[in-house]
Amino acid sequence: MNTLVLVILFFRAGATVGYWQVFKKTGIAPWIALIPFYSEFKIMELVGKPKWWIVYLFIPIFNIFAYYILIFDLIRCLGKESIWSQIICIFAFYLYLPWIAFQKKTVYLGKLESLPVQHKSPVKEWTEAVAFAVIAATLIRWTIMEAYTIPTPSMENSLMVGDFLFVSKFHYGTRTPATPLQIPLTHQKIWFTELPSYLEWVKLPQYRLPGFTSVKRGDVVVFNVPRHEENNFGIYDTSRWKYYPVDLKTNYIKRCVGIAGDKLEIKNRVVYTNGQAETTPPLSRQAYRVVANDEINDRNFQKLELDPDDYQYNGRNNSGQAEYTMHLTAATVNELRKLPFIVGAELERSSEERGAFLFPKFDSLRWTTENYGPVVIPQKGMTISINDSTLAFYGTVIRDYEYNKDVQIKGDKLTIEGKPVDQYTFRQDYYFMMGDNRNNSLDSRYWGFVPEDHIVGKGFFIWLSLDKYGSWLNKIRWSRFFNPIR
């Protein structure tokens, strides 16, 4: 049986035991505790919720919050009013409810509306309000939606530096936390410090709750970047590297260009999956070599909506003309070529030497960022033969992301827990991610496949956009407000 199903049954068993004893104390037939939803309907009657409220328990994601509200109300009706009781319920209701239900001193006080109003000091009211707000925000951040900001231009112009966006957790299904001992609303560090915000004393197996959809080609996806190199970007002393748990690795956002089982190839900058050319995102950028009669002034860059992150001045050529490397959309290139002082704007070709930095590190390959592959993306259940070629592509996947113990790779040989392996079957799906700003993106071409358990959520919509180069009147990009992410 699936482990996640066992976990859900365990939670349900704890709730059922608690319901059974509560029903005995309130004169309701205890056997009703064995029937899902009908037992919750009876709990609703005990706390005073209207009958139609049962509908909330059938709506995905919302049912999590509805269920917690029901449990909070129930323990209040059993005399547990403190914020700490609610906090315990959030993390261990399946143990706490039976514990209080079986205490002899616990009695049912009546529906919420009939309970006496407790008078609390202002300090206690504020403490409880803040604590509950943090807990609610943590639950929303975990189950429904989380805010992110775009720090680099790798996705321009689809997403721009300074965009603030919400990322949906419920599309692909939220992940259960692997590192539960963490300060709420933090990621890797405590705010404004270099102190870690988590403890690894407790590590849990990670599961994904049901979602509405799966990752598809073309989706803009937030994920934990897999390799340790990217998680310690800019730190060249490996003795200072941090080895984060999966759910606390650095967040990246890219576009999925290949899903599990796809055969992916890039030919002359065009992405092909399973032999079919994929549509290039309309706002994606490419690197161009631009030649002008003289240096271009800031006013002209502003008219083209280009900021200093979008171009680099390379000096003058032998003819005295100014040369630039610019990351441009197709529409911007057309506008640029119309300017009288522009001599030429042609695609900039990547050097073959860039292949040395690409994935996989295989000496016989001569791939570049513009002509890459073909490569088959691992799929759950896919079996490969083990040899020097397959280990070059999939050796790091087998060693680092498949939860195998004691993996040794020597030449064309693979051993797991001391046993030689001739064939290997993958345990999870993988994805290939690329930035829309194709020549200015650190993506799967450099560090490889993204495991399914590293997927965080789907880019949903932009709620704020700030231009760091804009004047105080133009600091906010109003036209990007509430734009859906495509």
3D structure, described in words:
The protein is of the alpha+beta class. Among the domains are: about 5-120, no CATH class; about 385-425, no CATH class. About 25% of the residues lie in helices and about 20% in strands. It has a 7-stranded antiparallel β-sheet. It has a 4-stranded antiparallel β-sheet with strand order 7-6-5-12, with no helix packed on it. A 4-stranded antiparallel β-sheet has the order 9-10-8-11.
User: Ranges with pLDDT <50 over ≥5 residues?
Assistant: none
Cα distance spanning the termini: 38 Å
What structural category do the secondary elements indicate? alpha+beta
**Hey, roughly how much beta strand do the residues contain?**
15-25%
The pLDDT mean sits at 88
Calculate Rg over CA atoms: 28 Å
Query: How much helicity do the residues have?
Result: 25-40%
Brief synopsis:
With 486 residues, the chain is α+β, with helices and mostly antiparallel strands. Among the domains are: 3-120, no CATH class; 383-425, no CATH class. Helices cover 26% and strands 21% of the residues.
How are the secondary structure elements laid out?
Blueprint: H1 3-26, H2 38-47, H3 62-77, H4 83-101, H5 122-143, E1 145-149, E2 163-168, E3 220-224, H6 228-231, E4 251-258, E5 263-267, E6 270-273, E7 276-277, E8 286-292, H7 298-303, E9 311-316, E10 322-328, H8 330-337, E11 342-347, E12 372-376, E13 383-385, H9 388-400, E14 407-410, E15 413-416, E16 419-420, E17 423-425, E18 430-434, H10 444-447, E19 450-451, E20 455-465
Antiparallel strand pairs: 1-2, 2-20, 3-4, 3-20, 4-18, 5-6, 5-12, 6-7, 8-10, 8-11, 9-10, 13-17, 14-15, 15-16, 18-19
Helix pairs in contact: 1-4, 2-3, 3-4, 4-5
